[in-house]
Design brief:
Blueprint lengths: L2 H14 L4 E6 L5 E3 L2 E2 L6 H7 L7 E4 L7 E5 L4 H7 L8 H5 L3 E4 L3 H9 L4 E4 L5 H15 L11 E4 L1 H9 L3 H24 L6 H14 L4 E2 L4 E4 L20 E6 L1 E3 L2 E2 L2 E6 L6 H20 L6 H19 L6 H6 L39 E4 L2 E4 L12 E4 L2 E5 L4 E3 L8 H9 L1
Length: 433
């Protein structure tokens, strides 16, 4: 994305604020990993959405209709600090680089911020999002309330920005979609590489390394979340991330992995045989999951809800499980009794964007919100038959999920991650090749 895209998002947010508002958006801070080393810095998602700026300890101030209208506090340039820890954008370069009206040093925040907020009717911010932000806002309000003799006036109302900001983030712009599509393409290449590299005797972390390498070589240095590489029974652990076991002949391996590109996530899951050939039992369960996923994707269009798609998924999977003998009873009764939750215990999908589990209101726990153009969501049905499941032993230890990222369009939908094979014959042909 270009900096003009972030500016457009700022302007959209400011236009949604009540008259007389000032908005504060705090950047993330670095987190200690061990002793005096830090985790790789990742920007606060809301702050990034409005700035594209990837340094810690910053503050964005938006003052609709005032001069200056957009202000940022950033770390000052510091030759010694930059020798040790890397370059800083600095105060002088920030306005032009970020297309903002003014910039100041974070060292001036306590002095200058009260004047920028003074007289506002409403203070809009994100309570509780960054630990230090609550303390900073509390101190700001105390300063303004204590300065009434000097003509200072504190905002009389506070507004949680999540309603406006997260609704904006839920609807992706063309620029955002382009980045997410590229993230999907890169992640798809990584999954294909993992399929091609897989063989009995490898360790799960070695397939993870193949994925990481492929993503990095195409410009995505970091993954969007901790990759799941689960062979055999491990595939039945939904958020398995140890990735430490050896892959066995005859088992399946489930890989849930997606890169982060320019701040935006991809999220793909594929399940395939370690030795390149599905057993008959594996084929039967895989075919159910794949039919469910394809049916759900085909339903995606404006006006349809995630719940409606999931209702169809449940009919397919419960009917199939009854036919295979893993469930007994009438399909509708089993669904009403949640009998499927022994094998399918999660939802059909979630919003995706800057966060892999992205912000946005689903309206209800059942996710009944009608889909709208610009929304991007995952579709990821799965069946997990644990090693202790009360079924015929031939089914035990089979864990399968198939997941793609889907953009809702005016006409219907567009799959952003479709470059990874998911048909049984396609997977077997790729792995044999």
């Amino acid at each position: 994305m270009e900096i003009k895209d972030f500016k457009a998002q700022r302007q959209q947010l400011m236009a949604s604020l009540p008259e007389g508002s000032v908005a504060l958006l705090f950047a993330a801070r670095e987190c200690t990993r061990s002793n005096d080393t830090e985790y790789h810095f990742r920007q606060n998602s809301d702050f990034f959405y409005l700035t594209g700026f990837n340094e810690p300890d910053a503050l964005l101030v938006l003052r609709p209709g005032q001069t200056p209208e957009s202000v940022i506090f950033v770390r000052p340039t510091d030759k010694l600090a930059e020798i040790w820890h890397g370059r800083r954008l600095g105060v002088d370069a920030a306005p032009e680089a970020l297309q903002l009206d003014a910039a100041f040093s974070v060292e001036q925040m306590a002095e200058l911020l009260p004047d920028l907020v003074n007289g506002a009717d409403t203070l809009a911010w994100l309570p509780g999002q960054e630990g230090y932000s609550d303390e900073a806002v509390s101190a700001l309000m105390a300063t303004l309330r204590g300065g009434f003799r000097q003509g200072r006036r504190a905002p009389t109302q506070q507004l949680d920005l999540r309603t406006q900001l997260h609704e904006m983030r839920l609807h992706k712009s063309d620029a955002e979609v382009a980045v997410m599509a590229r993230a999907g393409e890169i992640s798809a290449k990584a999954h294909v590489r993992a399929m091609q590299a897989c063989r009995p005797g490898l360790f799960e972390y070695q397939l993870e390394a193949e994925i990481n390498h492929e993503c990095a070589m195409h410009g995505a240095r970091f993954m969007a979340y901790n990759s799941i590489v689960g062979g055999g029974d491990n595939a039945c652990i939904l958020h398995y991330t140890e990735n430490e076991s050896q892959l066995k002949d005859g088992d399946l391996v489930l890989i849930d992995a997606g890169c982060e590109l320019e701040g935006y996530a991809a999220d793909i899951t594929r399940t395939f045989p370690v030795n390149g050939r599905f057993s008959e039992e594996q084929k039967a369960i895989y075919a159910l999951v794949l039919e469910a996923e394809k049916t759900a994707i085909a339903m995606i269009k404006p006006g349809v809800s995630i719940k409606e798609a999931n209702d169809q998924v449940l009919k397919i999977m419960v009917s199939g499980l009854v036919e295979l003998g893993l469930l007994q009873g009438e399909v509708q009764e089993l669904i009403e009794q949640d009998a499927h939750k022994a094998f399918y215990m999660h939802g059909l999908g979630h919003w995706i964007g800057i966060d892999v589990h992205d912000v946005g209101d689903y309206h209800t726990a059942e996710r009944t919100r009608p889909l709208e153009p610009g929304m991007v969501l995952t579709i990821e049905p799965g069946l997990y038959i644990g090693p202790d499941a009360e079924v015929d032993p031939k089914w035990r230890g089979i864990g399968i999920r198939v997941e793609d990222d889907v953009l809702v369009t005016e006409e219907g939908h567009r799959v952003l991650t479709g470059d990874v094979p998911k048909e049984i014959d396609e997977i077997e042909a790729l792995m044999a090749g």
